[in-house]
């Protein structure tokens, strides 16, 4: 059986969900909104890169896994767009941010070669392994008090990010080969990510200054235990090693439970917080 499963989800983003989904943690709510403003641009960027890489992948098992990766990412993007449309109904000024982030990824695709796009995708997807583990394991600090519809949606996304954490580096190694090229492009990758996150941050600051959204000076992960933050830092550094194997990362117990419940056909649209 493939390491990746495609699951069709049915999230709803009703207008009674607050713009900042967790009023008790504005900084983390902003981080979730920033993800929703950028994912509909970077996930299709990954998909485009994989589509272009597909004819170059010889291994049938990897081709099958890549198709499932694309299906998962396409669905992440679809739900982020639905979430984003709800945010835009509340704060239409953010349409410009969406357009600027999309334009930035379109420019990147036009101006760089396929091997860069595969390196970028692998670097980001490798980072999502430890980030997913961190978010899932510190979920009670980050999501408690938040709207369960958004919490469940974001946690689903990270469970699947954890599940498909191997695919992008496998594609990169199969098509481009040496991790040294990927490492030589990490700085350009980080600079581009900084550019898009600055577009979002500037917009949030301007909206907060006008009193249109709440603001917080806290780091989105300030309240998480120090040992989890330390482990996140060291695991992120580990993804930069040329011999890095994401399948060695330990699956969080909550993710394993989520995956078995989903496999058993349970509805997962309100998986967090679980009924106690
Ligand atoms: Fe995703
Ligand atoms: Fe992903």
Q: How does this model look, in words?
A:
The structure is a single chain. The protein has 11 helices and no strands. By secondary structure, it is mainly α. Helix 4 crosses helix 6 and helix 4 runs antiparallel to helix 7. The longest helix has 31 residues. It binds fe (ii) ion (2 copies). The site of one fe (ii) ion has 5 residues, from helix 2 and helix 6.
Largest sheet: none
Low-confidence stretches: none
Q: Which small compounds were modeled alongside the protein? A: fe (ii) ion
User: What is the domain total for the residues?
Assistant: 1
Structural class assignment: mainly alpha
The CATH class name reads Mainly Alpha
Shape summary: globular
Continuous helix count: 11
Please state the average pLDDT score: 96
Extended strand count = 0
Integer-rounded radius of gyration: 18 Å
Q: How much of the residues is beta strand, in percent?
A: under 5%
Order of helices and strands: HHHHHHHHHHH
CATH topology: Ribonucleotide Reductase, subunit A
Q: What separation lies between the terminal Cα atoms?
A: 32 Å
User: Which percent bin holds the helix content?
Assistant: 55-70%
Tell me the CATH architecture.
Orthogonal Bundle
């Amino acid at each position: 059986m493939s390491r990746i499963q495609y699951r069709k989800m049915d999230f709803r983003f009703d207008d009674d969900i607050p713009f900042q989904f967790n009023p008790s943690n504005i900084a983390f709510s902003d981080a979730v909104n920033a993800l929703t403003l950028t994912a509909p641009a970077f996930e299709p960027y990954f998909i485009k890169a994989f589509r272009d890489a597909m004819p170059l992948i010889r291994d049938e098992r990897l081709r099958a896994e890549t198709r499932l990766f694309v299906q998962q990412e396409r669905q992440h993007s679809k739900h982020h767009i639905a979430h984003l449309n709800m945010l835009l109904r509340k704060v239409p000024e953010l349409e410009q941010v969406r357009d600027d982030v999309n334009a930035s990824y379109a420019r990147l695709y036009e101006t760089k070669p396929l091997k860069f796009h595969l390196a970028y995708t692998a670097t980001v997807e490798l980072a999502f392994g430890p980030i997913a583990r961190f978010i899932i394991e510190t979920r009670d600090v980050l999501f408690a008090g938040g709207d369960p519809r958004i919490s469940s949606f974001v946690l689903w996304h990270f469970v699947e990010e954890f599940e498909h954490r191997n695919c992008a580096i496998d594609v990169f190694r199969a098509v481009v080969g040496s991790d040294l090229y990927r490492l030589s492009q990490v700085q350009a990758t980080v600079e581009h990510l900084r550019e898009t996150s600055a577009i979002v941050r500037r917009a949030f600051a301007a909206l907060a200054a006008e009193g249109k959204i709440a603001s917080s000076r806290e780091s989105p992960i300030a309240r998480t235990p120090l040992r989890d933050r330390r482990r996140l830092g060291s695991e992120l550094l580990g993804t930069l090693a040329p011999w890095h194997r994401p399948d060695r990362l330990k699956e969080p117990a909550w993710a394993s439970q989520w995956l078995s419940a989903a496999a058993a056909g349970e509805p997962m649209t309100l998986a967090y917080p679980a009924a106690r």
